Amino acid sequence: MVLLSELSSETISWIEEVDEISLDTETVSLKDLSILGFSFAAKKDNKLIAFYVPLKHSKMTNMSFGDAGVLLSLILSRKNVIFHNYSFDSRVLFKVGLGVKYLPHDTLILSQLWDENIPHGLKSLVDRYFGYRMTKYEEICGKGKSKINLSDAEPNVVDEYASDDALWTFILFSYLYSRIEKDEGLLRIYEKIERPLTRVIYDMQTKGFLVDVNRVEEIAVLCRAEMEKYKKAIHEIMGREVNLNSTKQLKEYFIDECHMDILKTSKITKEPSMDKEVLEQYAEKVKEADLILKYRHFQKVLSTFVPALTPQESDKICALFNQSGTVSGRFSSSSPNMQNIPREDEMKIRHIILPDLGEF
Q1: pLDDT for 223-267, tens place per residue?
Q2: Does domain 2-207 have CATH number 3.30.420.10?
Q3: How do the domains of the chain map onto residue ranges?
Q4: Which end of the chain, N or C, is surrounded by fewer C-beta atoms within 10 Å?
Q5: CA 13 from chain center: how many Å?
Q6: How many CB atoms lie within 10 A of CB 4?
Q7: How far apart are CA 214 and CA 9, in angstroms?
Q8: CB atoms within 10 A of CB 281
Q9: In the chain, which ranges are continuous DSSP H helix?
Q10: Does the domain spanning 210-359 belong to CATH 2.40.50.320?
């Protein structure tokens, strides 16, 4: 494992001569994708070497961003660049204006194809297949009040921790791909479907979806007005103000005062439940239960869909798409979950997403 703070002609030649190379990025956090550094590994003359390039570390000599850009561009121009969870690293690289030239390899996808019933995290896979325990993030940065940023960790532990990601990604690729190759069906799925799909997902995640921002605000205003209307009507029936999100206060009203039956209890608190299923049954007997359900509907739209569909930059939202997130093989999305947007509702929430005609 080599700590690399300067770009040399020897390193450039070494990269140009290898057939396959793995790459992994380190970021400030899972939410802040600002790059701290990156590691890469490859085998030449039957010798596997991993490097770590620091960029924003306080206790290390960092490579200049100019040289790092040259190095990354060279790596990304190779035909067989290997990642573990390319979806994540591609977004990190996109933030600095870089991307792969050819279709990448992804050991997470290979793992999903080989055995869909196991965890696909890199550390878990390395432990399973090679019996090697990789260092965890918490072991370097700590937890709670004593937690530090990776950028402030000691050089010797950062070097090994980060280099290991690229090193074991390379080893895992050799292990899994050699097995997938022997199964004609799995190889076809990987090379003809899953691997090309990574580029489609990259485009979807980086280009984003055009949103009608005016309609988002209109829906937010409508939700607030409807919630206020229903809250006022509910309080008039109850004869006092009640926190409509408080299970305790609703239990006191419906069970202690209205003498409704206890239909369900919480598995954790063992107290009577006031969830949607219970309120729907209460609504057959008392009007206020029905009004609470309507209030909660608009509350959910305001607290869930409106923030999720409000663009952070320009007029677009950039959801995440996961091609290996489910055992069934179904596509999934998050931040926001596009599949959870109601298909038919009175506010026509899906109409917020607009076709970006300029892309076609």
Answers
A1: 999 999 999 999 999 999 999 999 999 999 999 999 999 998 988
A2: yes
A3: 2-207, 210-359
A4: C
A5: 35
A6: 22
A7: 54
A8: 13
A9: 9-17, 65-76, 86-95, 107-114, 122-130, 137-141, 155-180, 184-188, 195-207, 213-238, 247-251, 276-282, 287-300, 306-308
A10: no
